[in-house]
Structure formats: C-alpha cells, structure tokens
Amino acid sequence: MGDRRGSRALNSRMALTETRKMVLAAVAACEDKKGEETRVLQLDPADSAFTDFFIITSTANERQSQAIADEIELTLKREFATYPNSVEGRRNGEWILMDYVDFVVHIFLRDRRAFYDLERLRKSARPVDIAELTAALTEKTVAARKKAPVKRAAKKAVKKAAAKKAPAAKKAGKKAKKSSAKSRE
C-alpha cells in the first residue's frame, strides 16, 4: 500500500485538485440518489497511508445502496474516465466499499453504519464541509480562468497573423504560376 502513495506523489498538487473534483462528483451522485447523512472525511496522512478521503453515506435499503454505487461509478466514468480499483459488497448491498485509490466510498444501510461507526474509528480524520470544498475548487477555477484569457488572446493574435499571411502567400503562389506559365510559352 505504501507503493500507491509514493507513485502518486509526483503530481500531488494537480492530483489533489482532481481528487477533490471527483469527491464532489461522488457526493453529488450520493445526493442525487437520496443518500442520507453523506459525509466526507479527510484522513490524516500519518494515520492513513492508503487514501486521502472517505465518503460515507447511508441508505434505507439494499437496492438504494446498489443504485448509489452504480450512479457514482457511472458519473466518475463519464466525467473523469476513471473506474474504481475495487468494489466490495455490491451483491448484498449492506455495506458497499468502492476504492478509487485517492478516496474510498462507503455506502451503508443505516443500521450497519451505526454498528461500524467509521467516523468514530477514524478519530484523526478531519470532517470536510462539502460547501467549503466546493468554494475552494470554484476559487481555483476562477483564478485559473483569469490567467487563461492572456493565453487565449495570444492564440488569437497568432491565428490572425497566420490568416493575414495566408492570402499574401496565395497571391504570391498565383503570380509564380502565371510567370512560369508565361515563361513556358
């Protein structure tokens, strides 16, 4: 498990932003399928070497658990082209665990969640406010877009310059053809 952490360390800043986007997408999928008491825990790196986040949600029955797992998998496949590393418990639906390496999704029946009480077991984990996570990502997106117009303007200037050169090149090509045709006569 330590190998998984080491290989991810290269682009950790970019990866963490992408991970947070995927976490938000998974939370939205939980809420879309009526998951209850959905929580996100950011795990302490010293305490947990295998993942960064836990997403924990509760359901009323097994079919709802399976529907949430299906929705998360479909959403992350569609939006991020990623699949879970492994899925456990999908068949009976009492506790479905979806391992996406950077985060793990736990989908529990209400009574199973109370019995296992992962929030209590992971005392060092910091609860993440979903609105706070969304705001932080929005802020990063806005900052990135403010930088982007400079790049876009430069690209447009290059395209305009190329467009201006193209007609001149065509005219020069036509003149060369005419002159070579006259010289043949």
Keywords:
6 strands, alpha+beta, 185 residues, six-stranded mixed β-sheet, elongated, Beta Polymerase, domain 2
Protein architecture, described:
The protein is an alpha+beta fold and 185 residues long. The chain has a domain of 127 residues: Beta Polymerase, domain 2, CATH 3.30.460.10. It contains six helices and six strands. It has a six-stranded mixed beta sheet. β4 and β5 form a beta hairpin. α2 packs across α3 and α2 packs across α6. The protein is elongated, with a radius of gyration of 26 Å.
Task: Summarize this structure briefly.
Helix content is 61%, strand content 17%.
SSE blueprint:
Layout: H1 2-8, H2 12-32, E1 36-42, E2 53-59, H3 62-80, E3 86-88, E4 95-99, E5 103-109, H4 110-116, H5 118-121, E6 126-128, H6 130-184
Parallel strand pairs: 2-5
Antiparallel strand pairs: 1-2, 1-6, 3-4, 4-5
